[in-house]
């Protein structure tokens, strides 16, 4: 599985090499001593369709995302424009973390208005002491506390309160920031520049971690800025989980809705998250294990074992998992591209 590499530098250099060979427009955007890159390949037919393919908004998830982007770039796609945004969160990517150097979850930080940061999350506040302990948990400490919170709040309510995001606890997990990270304006300007004149835009944002191990899950958003009829046209009978529906969760500051707002009344827009499951976190046992790893990784006292478990939750080393991910990505994206 040559596409799956081990370090940020390997992924970035491999992407840069492919980008230069492609003959497309390559740009680099410095972020705190590192950078993320964009590659634009104009459509060779009239500017009708644009694909935006993104990776690494949750840094550590960029390893799989980069592999899939580089695999995609090895094929010709002359009938559409392509904008690849590689490694949006380079700090998290390099340091095997999910957040930026400010502990910001970038997928809770994107919007067109700073009113985003006025959002409150009372559900998170009620469990913040459990989610952000003064030091790491042992499993013997974690599970009794977790079960006590489940009994008090209910599993679904607890999960939604946690995953929605918040703007009040700068050291907490799923923190959306106090202000926009630099990526927000940089990506906004780049996307609007490149997309000028395109009639249809498809976003595919690559993620790992949630759901059944080795399975591709498609996550969408119910938003007044997203046309449900066009979503149906593009995705048809493919199963999509929507954040606003039962048994899932909605977020604030999400990247998909941010792009939908940018394209509102400019172009037809369809946005989807490709999420590849790793530890069966759609089930109660896997969900609790995921939370345990998230909490401990966020501690200054985190151990080597914590880091190893965190990496495995977002970038499994299993070759069979990687092969399955690559196959599903290729097959599903090919099917979707026929419909835009």
Describe the 3D structure:
With 340 residues, the chain is α/β, with parallel strands linked by helices. It has one domain (8-337): Aminopeptidase, CATH 3.40.630. It contains 12 helices and 8 strands. It has helices spanning 8-22, 62-73, 90-94, 122-131, 139-153, 155-163, 182-195, 228-235, 255-263, 284-297, 304-314, 319-337, and strands at 25-31, 34-41, 49-54, 81-86, 200-209, 216-220, 240-242, 268-277. Strands 1-2-4-3-5-8-6-7 form an 8-stranded mixed sheet, sandwiched between helices. Strand 1 and strand 2 form a beta hairpin. Helix 2 (62-73) crosses helix 12 (319-337), helix 4 (122-131) packs across helix 6 (155-163) and helix 5 (139-153) crosses helix 6. The model has no long low-confidence stretch (mean pLDDT 95).
Assign the CATH topology. Aminopeptidase
CATH architecture title: 3-Layer(aba) Sandwich
SSE topology string: HEEEHEHHHHHEEHEHEHHH
Number of domains: 1
What characteristic shape results from the CA principal axes? Answer: globular
User: What is the radius of gyration?
Assistant: 19 Å
Binned strand content? 15-25%
- The strand count comes to 8
Give the C-level CATH assignment. Answer: Alpha Beta
Average pLDDT figure: 95
Q: Return the structural class.
A: alpha/beta
User: What about the largest sheet?
Assistant: 8 strands, mixed
Sequence stretches where pLDDT stays below 50 over 5 or more residues: none
Distance between the termini: 30 Å
Write the layout of secondary structure elements.
Blueprint: H1 8-22, E1 25-31, E2 34-41, E3 49-54, H2 62-73, E4 81-86, H3 90-94, H4 122-131, H5 139-153, H6 155-163, H7 182-195, E5 200-209, E6 216-220, H8 228-235, E7 240-242, H9 255-263, E8 268-277, H10 284-297, H11 304-314, H12 319-337
Parallel strand pairs: 3-4, 3-5, 5-8, 6-7
Antiparallel strand pairs: 1-2, 2-4, 6-8
Helix pairs in contact: 1-2, 2-12, 4-6, 5-6, 10-11
């Amino acid at each position: 599985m040559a596409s799956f590499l081990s370090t940020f530098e390997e992924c970035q250099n491999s992407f840069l090499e492919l980008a230069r060979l492609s003959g497309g427009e390559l740009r680099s955007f410095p972020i705190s001593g590192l950078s993320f890159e964009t590659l634009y390949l104009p459509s060779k037919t009239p500017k009708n369709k644009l694909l935006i393919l993104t990776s690494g908004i949750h840094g550590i998830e960029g390893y799989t995302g980069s592999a899939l982007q580089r695999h995609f770039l090895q094929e010709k796609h002359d009938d559409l424009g392509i904008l690849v945004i590689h490694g949006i969160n380079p700090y998290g990517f390099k340091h095997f973390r999910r957040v930026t150097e400010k502990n910001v979850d970038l997928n809770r930080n994107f919007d067109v208005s700073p009113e985003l940061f006025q959002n409150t999350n009372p559900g998170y506040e009620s469990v913040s002491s459990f989610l952000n302990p003064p030091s790491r948990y042992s499993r013997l400490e974690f599970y009794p506390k977790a079960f006590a919170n489940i009994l008090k709040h209910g599993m679904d309510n607890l999960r939604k309160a946690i995953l929605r995001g918040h703007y009040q606890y700068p050291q907490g997990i799923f923190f959306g920031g106090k202000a926009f990270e630099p990526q927000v304006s940089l990506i906004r300007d780049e996307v609007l520049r490149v997309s000028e004149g395109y009639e249809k835009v498809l976003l595919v944002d690559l993620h790992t971690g949630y759901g059944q191990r080795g399975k591709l899950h498609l996550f969408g958003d119910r938003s007044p800025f997203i046309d449900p009829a066009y979503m149906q046209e593009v995705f048809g009978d493919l199963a999509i989980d929507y954040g606003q529906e039962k048994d899932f969760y909605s977020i604030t500051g999400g990247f998909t809705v941010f792009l939908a707002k940018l394209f509102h009344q400019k172009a037809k827009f369809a946005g989807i998250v490709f999420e590849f499951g790793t530890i069966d976190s759609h089930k109660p046992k896997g969900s609790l294990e995921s939370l345990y790893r998230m909490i401990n990784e966020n501690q200054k006292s985190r151990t080597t074992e914590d880091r190893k478990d965190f990496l495995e939750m977002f970038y499994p080393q299993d070759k069979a998992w990687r092969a399955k991910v690559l196959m599903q990505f290729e097959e599903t994206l090919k099917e979707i591209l026929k419909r835009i």
